[in-house]
Amino acid sequence: MASSKFVRCSECSGSGSIPFDTTCVICSGKGTTGCDKCRDGSIPCTSCNATGKQRVLAFFSASCATCQGKGKLICSTCKGTSKTKCPKCNGSGHISQSKPCTVCNGNGQVEDLKYRAWVNALQEFSVDRLQDEKSRRQHKTSDSRSKIGQLQAALREGWDDWETDPASSNNCRHGWTPSTWGENREISNLEERITELEDEIDLIQEALDRKLR
User: Which residue from 44, 46, 35, 126 is spatially nearest to 82, judged by alpha carbons?
Assistant: First the structure.
C-alpha cells in the first residue's frame, strides 16, 4: 500500500517546467531586423523608373508627380525606417523557453510532507486513536458516497426533461449539459476523495494490525 501522497509543486505551479527568457539570436535582442524590401527606407519610384522625371511632350519632361522628382518613394513595409519587427521574437528581443523544474524533477508534483508525517506518526498512535482515525474516515467516505448518489439522482431526474424543455430542466439549472454528463467535476472530486480516504483507512488498518498482534 502506498504511503506517500503528492501535491502540486509550488515552484513550477504543477507545470513541471520553469520558464526563462533568452536573447533572440536573430536580432541580438534589438527586436528589429533590416527591412527585406529596401535598403535605406526607400524604394525606386515605378512611375518614373527612378529618374524623377516624366515625359510630357516629345522634347519636354517634368518632375515626377508621384515621387516629386526624387526618383524614390518611402518604403511601405518599414515606413522609411529600414527596420522591421523581428519575426523570430515578434519584436520583444527575447525568446521564451522553459527547463525542467529541479524541485519536482519535471513531474509537477512533490511529496506531501504533512501526509508523510501523519503516516509515520501512525506507528505511535494508540489503538483507540487509530480506531478513531479509521472511524472518522469511514464516516467521511459514507458521506461522500451519499453526496454522489444525490448528484447522480439529480442528473437522472432532470435528464428526461432535457429534450422537451432544456432551459427548465434540473440539468440546465446546475450547468450540466449532455456533453458534461459523464464528466461532472463535483462527482469526480468526490470519487477522488473517496479513493484517498480508502487509502488512508488501509494504512490505519495496517497500523492497527501491528498493534493488535
Answer: 35
The answer to whether residue 119 scores a pLDDT higher than 60 is yes
Write down the domain spans for the chain: 38-81, 126-212
Whats the size of the chain, residue-wise?
213
User: How far is residue 74's CA from residue 54's CA, in Å, rounded to a whole number?
Assistant: 19
Mean pLDDT on 187-201? 92
**pTM of the full predicted structure?**
0.52
| Contacts of residue 129, Cβ cutoff 8 Å, sequence gap at least 6 | none
Pure H helices in the chain:
113-121, 127-162, 170-173, 185-212
Q: Does residue 76 contact residue 55 with C-beta atoms inside 8 Å?
A: no
pLDDT value of position 109: 95
| Predicted confidence (pLDDT) at residue 169 exceeds the cutoff of 60 | no
At residue 61, φ and ψ (nearest 5 deg) are -130, 160
Q: Which pLDDT score is estimated for 159?
A: 66
Q: Strand 17-23 to strand 83-85: parallel, antiparallel, or no bridges (unpaired)?
A: unpaired
* 3 state SS of 180: helix
